[in-house]
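Case study B.
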Amino acid sequence: MIKIVSMRLFQAILVMVAVTAVAFIMFRFVGDPVAMMVREGASQAEKDALRAALGLDNPMLIQFVEFFGRVLHGDLGTSFRYQQPVAELLMNRLPATLELVLVATVMSLALGIPLGVVCALKPTGFLSRIIQSATLVGISMPTFVTGLLLILIFAVNLRWLPSSGRGELVNLGGWQTGFLTVSGLKSLILPSITLALFQLTLIMRLVRSEMIDVLSSDYIRFAFARGLPRSHIYGRLALRNALMPVVTVTGLQIGQLIAFAIVTETVFQWPGMGLLFTNAVGYPDVPVLAAYLLFVGFLFVMINMVVDILYTFIDPRLRTK
Amino acid sequence: MNTQTPPVLDIKNLRVEYPLTNGGTLVAVNDIDLTIRPGEIHALVGESGAGKTTVGNALMGLLQAPGRIAGGSISIAGKQINTRTGRTEGIVPGRDVGAIFQDPMTSLNPLFTVESQLCEGMLAHLKISRKEARARALDLLKAVGIPEPERRLGSYPHQLSGGQRQRVVIATALACDPRLIVADEPTTALDVSVQAQILKLIRDLADERRVGVLLVTHNMGVVAEIADRVTIMQNGSVVESGSARGVLTSPKAPYARTLIAAVPPIEHRLERLPVPSEETPATLKAREAVRGKTRSAAESKEDEPMLAVRELCVEYGQRSFLPSRRTAFKAVKSVSFDVKRGEIFGLVGESGCGKTTVANTIAGLVAPTSGSVHFQGVALEAGRTKSVRQSMQMVFQDPYSALNPRMRINAAIAEPILFYELASNAAEAREDAAILLEAVGLNGQSGERFAHAFSGGQRQRIAIARALGPQPSMLICDEPTSALDVSVQAQLLNLLKDLRDLAGLSMLFISHDLAVIRQMCDRVAVMKGGEIVELAETETLFSSPQHEYTRELLRLAPSLDRILKAENTAA
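Model:
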């Protein structure tokens, strides 16, 4: 077990070094920082001085090592646009996105797994046809359409829920949470539904097809032959086998949502990382882009690692080699 | 025997139907009568599609919808199954009927421990505490003879061997003390030595616990070994029923006679297995055409062996950055043998002995770690010439996965013919394909169809026709008949012999079935743990086996003749 974890950790570090290198190269090739920073009409001597001051006259490798060292210390540079440390910018935005994604994921799992099971047990039944068609609509509608529709119904017409922003926030040691106030929770509902809809369909369909496979397996037939209660066979014996791929997909989807919830965040004016990133692309704010790249890389590496470790918990066959 | 006690199973006029989409019905089981007394093992025998598994499913309540019990009655331990609902009042599957499935590798849930799978049935049916269930589970594991039962309770299925898993399955079947056990092909997936142990275990449990056993099987040797009574089924109906010895020694119904005659005997060699010949004039004509082609293709020095394998070693290793972490599993350890021209050379052994690895190495599918393979006097290297690949063709075990389901049969057979430029155009290759189909006993016109339109035996014929297409001089057959019914197996073995004589083929014939080896091979090598432990002429090997392991295998192989003879001398 420890061996598997340490092995995965080692691989994760390798990937992170590679991602850092890409972020570094981005700095080098997306425009010359000196040209952006000096005043217009500066002399060559002034430029050289600035170059030396920034350490840009050193050999490539040394520059990379220095960059890597700064990243390790959490120094991601200063945003061209906001003139603030990038790390600080990210930390301001991160809680918004994480809370949104967390709620959306819990929602899609809590609904998607039972719906998938229902559809698998009676694949041709009336109920499962309804569920399947309804979720098909959900998956084929673009996120911004769903978001706008929800705003139109619940915010504009019914006036039940806010249409934008995060509501009142509570500061927990630098983490701005919306979980502790009524308006914060209310503001979460519409964007998280919008975000969860696609994932819900995906998980529902995955659970359904996996469950149908598992139900035709010998060990489930054997469970029926032993006269075990249906609830036990479906809910425990079959479902656990069917959930294996769901773990992988959910992991990847969480990463996907955190990194690219841009559309939903734009529709709901959600002050998350997505908005920061879209603005940075337009500007071009290279330190923010590079930091974003690092962050997304880190996120996926971590998620993959957690998924692999979860796998060894679920499947005993992976534990003993 | 126990004529006073009520039978544990009494089936009268059972009829099971499957409604078809076109409005008709398929009668899977037609008017079956069957009685099992406590402690009796009743074998239900027949070929695939005979309806024997359907009978077992019907009484376990496992009939797949839309199948239904259309008539007759089933009573278990004196209680009647409601045939309309397919359920029983007072009879619960698991509690009153135990089940043993065919493949122990798949009938246990991989994510749960042995203890959990043993106890869940008891907890559901017996109203006992978890602690009592655990104690019972421990007793059961002891009863089925699993070493270190305490530790095994905490194990997961993948940590057990196939034989141990089947013992766990048997223990779960016994968990609630059922009166009847339905064992559906309980040893088909196991090696001979393990099979012998499991059969003995089932026999002992039936005797000690007075459980009735319905043993569904296609293996006559197994029937002879442990069954008290036997019922032979064909197309859903009973053909013959009676005491196992009576039916096996002097079958009365014609089908029963053919079925028993098709079982390859292990005691002596037959020229041909006595099954109806399928040689129509068209077949003979096609074979003449095939003969003309192959003879011209195979011409070289007679004295030299077709295939010479020398000190072949194959290791499967785990690669690692650190040399100390590299581990190697030696699948084949220094194997040497020759296959002479026109000879059928057998490789026999239990699963994991390396026989398939040897075949794959010779065919070039696996790279050897060391050693050499000479084919027609030429050393084979990693990159093989087209002519070598052409002269060596392979027939695989599973005819269901060996054919591309999206390819028409004649295209599948014509493909290698075109690849090796043995026909000038596609039309000509298809003509050749039709001739090959005729030669293996199929209609030449049937090539327009896809693989799913054919039965397992027909598919294996197609696979053989495809292998013959490139006009090979050597055929590697890896368990070519082990997925097939006995009568189909008999026909295919006859076919392979005919083709050998016809085309002067040499064959490497791999099997775990000693009886098949005896019928087919001129010489045999017995493999164990990656090594050849004995190599001899087939008749010598079977009449006076030298190595301990060979004797062991021969002793354990279930055999019709031997058991019947032993009983006759005892009587």
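The radius of gyration of chain B is 26 Å. The remaining cases will be described in the next quarterly update.
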